[in-house]
Automatic annotation (TrEMBL):
It is an enzyme of class 2 (transferase). This is SAM-dependent methyltransferase. It comes from Amphibiibacter pelophylacis. The keyword Transferase applies. Keywords: Methyltransferase, Transferase. Its EC number is 2.1.1.-.
Length: 403
């Protein structure tokens, strides 16, 4: 998302108010003491079947707040993003001898449309998206491609081809942990309690159930043990067992081909740097950002940056190879975005205006101070040459930084 911080929001005209069904679901998800772990809160706020942010019928994605949208992603800025990504996708399809693309969380369908416009016509496109309203937008936008595009109701048990996830992992629920003031125990876990007096959800920390975490995700538990000594008391961050489990599941079902993840995030040593002491949780609404995820659940996006080391290790545990890792800016340059930009027509005054806007948006994609450095690209594969210099990673590969 490409947004700017703001301390507070005015009501957004036409937006729905707090949903009683979502509120009831949040209350019901609490434990016997009234405490709700944050990943459970985030799960309901984003994915409640009727009232979650991603399941309710609001525009969500768009370039400007006037449309009622909340944030913009790279495919919304310019179709050149998808056209450029298609070069890497084509190389992977050809190398793996497959002809199907599966996009997870396809948003408005902008990326699918741009890819389908330039991918070979025999390539089939599959979409898995939890949002009924977004699936409707996708169906309208992609109708001209006919049966090349199909929507799935669940993850396939087996898949051959290329799996794409653009700004998907940042919306997978995370757990919030806080370094204890004393050393025993080293970590506490942050959750939510409902305050009847304030009529609001409030943060409350509890001792982290270390044994339960170790049983569910031994690597996350070991990571916390490893980083605890170097972090100051009160240090707050996120761990990602759900996101890494999703990647592991997908990796196990990928029989031949590749996965491409594009998202904002860091490798582990940067993610848990001592100076990054307040975590990465952020909310988005009306193209403004805030750091209050417990406020107005269901009415705004909640995200956390991606730990790309954890993603890579989860994939490796399921038998995949790490084929490349770099910044989005370097990836797009390697795949030829500057050349595509230079080839845009500039025949009429109207076309020159459109070209200038496209150029400005394209520069946002690779500029270091915009999306070029914060966003990363991770390529994982099975049955592909792990020694090959793949197109998007031919220069500036940072795979070594994941360790």
């Amino acid at each position: 998302m490409n947004d700017f911080p703001a301390p507070a929001f005015a009501p957004v005209p036409g937006r729905l108010g707090p949903d009683p069904d979502l509120h009831a679901a949040l209350l019901a998800a609490r434990d016997a003491s009234g405490w709700l772990r944050f990943d459970a809160f985030m799960q309901q706020a984003l994915y409640h079947p009727q009232a979650g942010y991603y399941t309710r019928s609001s525009p969500k994605l768009g370039e400007r707040p006037e449309s009622g949208s909340d944030f913009v992603t790279a495919p919304e800025l310019t179709p050149l993003f998808g056209h450029t990504l298609a070069a890497q996708v084509t190389e992977l399809l050809q190398a793996s001898g497959t002809q199907t693309v599966l996009e997870l969380g396809a948003g408005s369908g902008a990326l699918a449309e741009a890819l389908l416009d330039v991918l070979p016509p025999h390539v089939a496109y599959r979409i898995l998206d939890v949002s009924p309203s977004l699936r409707g937008r996708q169906a309208q936008r992609l109708a001209r491609f006919g049966e090349r595009v199909q929507w799935l109701e669940a993850l396939p048990e087996s898949f051959e081809g290329v799996i794409l996830g653009n700004e998907l992992l940042d919306a997978v629920p995370v757990r919030v942990v806080v370094r204890s003031v004393d050393d025993e125990p080293a970590w506490r876990e942050r959750g939510a309690v409902w305050d009847d007096t304030a009529n609001a959800w409030q943060w409350q920390d509890r001792p982290l159930d270390r044994a339960l975490l170790a049983a569910q995700d031994a690597r996350c538990a070991g990571l916390l043990d490893e980083i605890a000594p170097q972090l100051p008391p009160g240090y707050t961050s996120e761990i990602h067992p759900q996101g890494q489990a999703l990647v592991g599941t997908l990796a196990a079902r990928l029989k031949r081909g590749a996965m491409l993840w594009l998202d904002y995030g860091f490798e582990e040593r940067t993610y848990y740097h001592p100076q990054r002491a307040t975590g990465t949780l952020m909310c988005h609404r009306a193209h403004r950002a805030d750091d209050q995820p417990l406020a107005e659940p269901g009415e705004k996006d909640i995200t956390a940056h991606v730990n790309f080391t954890g993603v890579a290790l989860a994939a490796q545990d399921a038998g995949l190879d790490v084929l490349g890792y770099t910044s989005q800016g370097r990836f797009l340059i390697n795949c030829g975005l500057p050349q595509r930009l230079a080839e845009l027509p500039q025949a009429t005054a109207q076309e020159r205006v459109a070209s200038a806007r496209t150029t400005a948006n394209a520069h946002k994609l690779w500029a270091e101070h915009e999306m070029g450095e914060l966003f990363k690209v991770l390529l994982l594969g099975r049955g592909l040459d792990a020694t090959r210099h793949w197109l998007g990673f031919a220069q500036g590969d940072r795979t070594g930084a994941l360790g």
